Amino acid sequence: MADELHKILIVGGGAAGLELATELGKKLGKSGRAEITLLDAASTHIWKPLLHEVASGTLAEAEEIEYMAQAHRNHFRFLFGRMEGLDRAAKEIIVAPINNKQGAELIPARRFKYDSLVMAVGSVSNTFGIKGVDQHCMFIDTTTQAYRFQRQLVETYYIQSYANQSRQRDKPLSIVIVGAGATGVELSAELHEVTKLLATYGLEGSIEVNITIIEAATQLLPALPPRLSQATQDQLLKLGIQLKLGRKVTEVTETEVHTYDGEVFDADLKVWAAGIKAPDWMKSLDGLETNHINQLVVDQTLQTSDPDVFAIGDCAACAWADHAGNVPPRAQAAHQMASAVAKTIVNRLNGKAPVKFVYHDYGSLVSLGKFSTVGSLMGSLMGTVSVGGFIAYVVYLSLYKMHQVAIHGYFRTAMLTLSNLFRRSTHAKIKMH
Ligand SMILES: Cc1cc2nc3c(=O)[nH]c(=O)nc-3n(C[C@H](O)[C@H](O)[C@H](O)COP(=O)(O)OP(=O)(O)OC[C@H]3O[C@@H](n4cnc5c(N)ncnc54)[C@H](O)[C@@H]3O)c2cc1C
């Protein structure tokens, strides 16, 4: 009788999709009321706001979750594969063939049926078609890219260290980050921390590193109030990070970054973190409406124009009630959207109306390395409160803890936190391999 079960297919197991699959697995999968399937293009999950720590090598390995094990524990099914198309008439998604590294096909293209489809594929960096960005910049949109960046970073440090020792080079190592949003700012602070740690660990041939952030806007962190943006700016300058605001990048080459006003920046490593878009293949998803950055347009119930197709997280364009524009692409929005759609799908099975999604902004926090966090917290009682230092750091950590609780429950989250604390006392604070 399994064929008669309502088929819920979730595409993308990130901040939104993995929480949704876990919740629906517990609510509907366990009791056999629905068949819940999660498809992801990767086999493991790391919460995306931690990727700058993966990229810099400072993240504890325990933060990675195997989808298959998570599915087994929480009564849903996991499928490995990359969605590339949709057939709404047949109510099927189309998944690309899987090839090995040599390009030989291991698994052909497949189709999977759904009764309710939830698109949760997140976003990628927007390069705005600027010359040389795709070829020469590194991105940290996915775990694979973050690990690739980390390997290149380590190699570059070793090469620079050798060159310094053997006096083959007398220039500092230059890292240019394009984009002064949370990703660029957090990554710059983390890279500063790494450089300090390497010196502490005594990497031969002292390395001088110049970190520069280039940003088209005249303020960094546009999502934060100007006072906090200024506080962040002061903090970064104190760390020795150079800020080049109001500069539009026009071209990236193998060794340089060029700006509109003719400035040229030397760059051994270049990272692109200047804005997001939903993946390009979403632009024409069997007639569903998308916006200028490929996000699926959804209404307040997070449904597209096809009521069987939902979109949540960064790939959804949902109007933000009483605000200009859409709900911002943030982890807290992904978390709240996953909860709302979980309720709606349970209601669907019970013949009840969908839940209206209302986004609550609890503020923005940016981590600037160890024990240094700035941001604003919002609440209906207290209005907007600026926070900094240790309090902000603790609140910042609690965002991740909320995700872990949604995935693992309270007990396992507490155990993981404890085991990480013990691990950190014996393991290196940075990964050099
Ligand atoms: C470095 C960095 C730092 C950040 N810091 C913060 C922060 O401090 N606070 C905050 O609120 N937000 C932060 N963000 C943004 C936040 O990470 C995102 O808003 C959030 O992860 C969006 O969740 P999501 O579920 O929509 O997408 P994701 O978490 O990106 O998940 C998407 C999933 O879809 C999968 N996928 C993609 N394409 C396909 C496909 N074709 N087929 C199958 N699966 C697919 C991916 O493998 C991934 O698992 C940060 C982002 C980055 C990159």
From TrEMBL:
SUPFAM superfamilies: FAD/NAD(P)-binding domain. Keywords: FAD, Flavoprotein, Membrane, Oxidoreductase, Transmembrane, Transmembrane helix. One of its GO terms (biological process) is aerobic electron transport chain. Its cofactor is FAD. One of its GO terms (molecular function) is NAD(P)H dehydrogenase (quinone) activity. Residues 7-338 form the FAD/NAD(P)-binding domain. The chain crosses the membrane at residues 377-399. Belongs to the NADH dehydrogenase family. This is NADH dehydrogenase. It comes from Methylomonas koyamae.
